[in-house]
Design brief:
This protein is an alpha/beta fold. It is built from 20 helices and 16 strands. The two termini are 37 Å apart.
């Protein structure tokens, strides 16, 4: 994966290749010097004919062309470029501003129209900077997806932060082994995606990958799901049924929320892991199973073991290889990449002409703490795409909890002495709502996800806690 890190870094630094076309050599020289100083590769052409030859032999990310030139003009070059290099960003310049000319240029497919005046260089620099940023994100996202397809067969794990690169390295290292893996991390961080990635890059990839949420079943039902049962072994057992251990033979069984398993079931699971055999309910016969176990939890196992809720011997059986998936707030540099990834997906499925995310909206997304992690960000972008009517995601389609995040400190007890109310005032209800959410989330985290304990910490009834949690979508 060392090559992966280097290549990703190079992609991030690579600046767009620019072609400048103008019959005035002084203009070409000025723009060439300007953009070369900023690190771009720049080619110049003093006629449309010369520009066409360059376009036939090289790939340019950005083309900047004057409209009026002897012989063929900039619009002719634009039409040619759209045929031979449709992905190039095309900027037309003119010293003679006219509405009909601008309309014709934009109708022909120009991405930007710049008038040559006292600040046209600054306009061009801003346009090039915007395109550079857009191309950088596209190239990084494309590269990461290709790498992940090569590595895991999946393109759903997105990230370029050091913590996520470490996860990618670990996936590659542990996948070929048969050792058990314990994946820990908060809800919504993508633990199942990591488990699938490990399976897909292992020698078991052609065998079943079966998942079970251990927290979704009562004890007796979980036992029958895992180990199977014989006809007549209990009321409703009308036929023999194979358990998930047998169904996953030769492959991988992903046991999510294993921290919610009862102590009785923990004893039975420990025995299976120790002996490699399962016995269906109501049967006297055991069968050998070859299954790789990947377990996941959002609980603190040290605390669970210390308080007697999880067996220490089972923990060590499961955590041969521990993998900690970071929370989204711990890798904020991945938020823009993830947001754009989700935007592209939902834009296509909803068939909406949304081209990006506004700087203000992106700033709000990057500042928010994302207690629901990647899953919450995904849902937020889906909602934003559904509600947005413009060309880019704006702050007006983001939820209040995101817009108001960070402003709650003004009403935190102890902060009143330094309280500052701006001249334009504050949205009191948003600030109060943001504060409520912060306390609810902080109490839930301190309580290890146990809502009854969280309500005790906040000195409110459990019923009140449920009301507030529902109100704030926690």
């Amino acid at each position: 994966m060392q090559g992966t890190k280097t290549a990703t870094k190079e992609i991030g630094r690579e600046l767009p290749h620019i072609l400048v076309v103008d019959d005035e050599k002084s203009i070409c020289e000025l723009l060439e010097i300007t953009f070369r100083k900023e690190g771009h590769r720049v080619e110049v052409a003093n006629s449309v004919e010369a520009a066409k030859r360059k376009l036939e032999s090289q790939i340019f990310d950005i083309i900047i062309s004057d409209i009026r030139m002897p012989g063929e003009d900039g619009v002719d070059l634009l039409k040619f470029a759209k045929e031979i290099a449709p992905d190039s960003f095309f900027v037309l310049m003119t010293a003679l501003p006219a509405l009909d000319t601008a309309i014709a240029a934009l109708n022909s497919g120009a991405d930007r129209y710049v008038i040559k005046d006292h600040n046209h260089i600054d306009q061009l620099r801003r346009a090039v900077k915007e395109v550079s940023e857009s191309l950088r994100w596209k190239k990084e996202a494309g590269y990461l997806r290709r790498e992940l397809r090569r590595l895991t067969g999946l393109d759903n794990i997105i990230g370029q932060s050091p913590k996520m690169r470490a996860i990618f390295d670990l996936i590659q290292t542990v996948a070929p082994q048969s050792s058990r893996v314990l994946i820990t991390g908060e809800s919504g961080t993508g633990k199942e995606l990591v488990a699938r990635a490990i399976h897909e890059n292992s020698s078991r990839a052609q065998a079943p990958f079966i998942t079970i949420n251990c927290g979704a079943f009562p004890e007796t039902l979980l036992e029958s799901e895992l180990f199977g049962y014989m006809k007549g072994s209990f009321t409703g057992a009308n036929e023999n049924r194979q358990g998930l251990f047998q169904a996953a033979h030769g492959g991988t069984l992903f046991m999510d929320e294993i921290g919610n398993m009862s102590l009785t079931m923990q004893v039975k699971l420990y025995r299976v892991l120790q002996e490699g055999k399962v016995r269906p309910i109501g049967s006297t016969e055991e069968s050998t199973v070859d299954v790789r176990i990947i377990a996941a939890t959002n609980k603190d196992f040290e605390k669970e073991i210390a308080e007697g809720r999880f067996r220490e011997d089972l923990y060590y059986r499961l955590s041969v290889i521990p993998v900690q998936v970071p929370a989204l707030r711990e890798r904020r540099e991945d938020i823009p990449l993830l947001a754009r990834h989700f935007l592209e997906r939902f834009r296509k499925t909803m068939e909406k002409p949304i081209e990006g995310i506004s700087p203000e909206a992106m700033s709000k997304l990057e500042s928010y703490d994302w207690p629901g992690n990647v899953r919450e960000l995904e849902n937020t972008v889906e909602r934003a795409v559904a509600l947005e009517t413009g060309k880019e995601i704006s702050v007006r389609v983001l939820q209040d909890r995101i817009l108001g995040y960070g402003s709650a400190s003004a009403v935190v007890p102890g902060a009143s002495q330094g309280l500052q109310i701006p001249d334009e005032g504050v949205d009191f209800e948003k600030v109060v709502a943001a504060t409520e959410r912060l306390y609810l989330q902080a109490a839930l985290e301190k309580a290890g996800g146990v809502r009854t304990r969280a309500s005790e910490l906040l000195k409110i009834t459990y019923r009140s806690y449920r009301h507030y949690a529902k109100k704030h979508s926690i």
